[in-house]
Automatic annotation (TrEMBL):
<dbReference type="Pfam" id="PF08241">
    <property type="entry name" value="Methyltransf_11"/>
</dbReference>
<dbReference type="GO" id="GO:0008757">
    <property type="term" value="F:S-adenosylmethionine-dependent methyltransferase activity"/>
</dbReference>
<dbReference type="GO" id="GO:0032259">
    <property type="term" value="P:methylation"/>
</dbReference>
<protein>
    <submittedName>
        <fullName>Malonyl-[acyl-carrier protein] O-methyltransferase BioC</fullName>
    </submittedName>
</protein>
<keyword id="KW-0808">Transferase</keyword>
<dbReference type="InterPro" id="IPR029063">
    <property type="entry name" value="SAM-dependent_MTases_sf"/>
</dbReference>
<dbReference type="InterPro" id="IPR013216">
    <property type="entry name" value="Methyltransf_11"/>
</dbReference>
<keyword id="KW-0489">Methyltransferase</keyword>
<feature type="domain" description="Methyltransferase type 11">
    <location>
        <begin position="2"/>
        <end position="93"/>
    </location>
</feature>
Length: 206
């Protein structure tokens, strides 16, 4: 099986421990270095998931956790994942849908008038991208709470969203800017809230 967008190899390591032969793929060589240090997979490939360096029908299982939302073309990415999946195999993925990280987006907009957060596709758009194949999709809303903004922003590293800290328009996240952003952040009784609209998907390869 292949873990596409494996990051630091968290899931690769778990899947390998269950006896699977895992190929770990990520666009970041630095992430792959961390995965390699963990001995998370059998092999490590640095490549773009929108142009996978594998022959057709290579893997029985293609797995991707919170990675395809960063692709420029979801349909192309899914087509590539489908291409390298063997007949009778499955593609299992999670991704983020519209409404995710909305509180952070609102805080940035209040601070400097710019969202700094990716414009995630709607659930309907994600569903449309899966239409060429037999599939199942589930949308789940989760609201996480953090005692302060530093820990909230640190949690985003787990989904490869480190650029959300200062934003793609540049500018360092100074202590003063962090304080201003925290002041602009909507507060709930449980602390700083962060919403995830997570899509769980399975695509079946005929």
């Amino acid at each position: 099986m292949i873990d596409v967008g494996c990051g630091t190899g968290f899931f690769s390591q778990i899947i390998k421990a269950q006896g699977a032969e895992v190929t770990a793929l990520d666009l970041s060589s630095g992430m792959l270095d961390v995965a390699r240090q963990k001995n998370a997979a059998k092999q490590y490939i640095c490549a773009d998931m929108e142009a996978l360096p594998f022959a057709d029908q290579t893997f029985n299982v293609v797995f991707s956790n919170l990675a395809i939302q960063w692709c420029s073309d979801l349909s192309l990415a899914l087509t590539e994942l489908h291409r390298v999946t063997k007949s009778g195999g499955v593609i299992v993925f999670t991704t983020l849908a519209e409404g995710s990280l909305s509180e952070l987006s609102q805080a940035w907009a209040r601070l400097d008038g710019y969202s700094h957060v990716n414009a995630f596709l709607s659930f309907e758009q994600i569903t449309a991208s899966c239409q060429p194949w037999q599939h199942q999709l589930l949308l789940q809303t989760d609201k996480l709470h953090f005692p302060d903004l530093a820990r909230l922003l640190n949690s985003l590293k787990g989904i490869g969203a480190t650029h959300l800290t200062a934003g793609r328009r540049g500018g360092l996240m100074t202590r003063q800017r962090l304080h201003r952003l925290e002041s602009a952040y909507p507060m709930s009784e449980k602390g700083l809230e962060l919403t995830y609209q997570t899509v769980f998907g399975i695509i079946y390869r005929d």
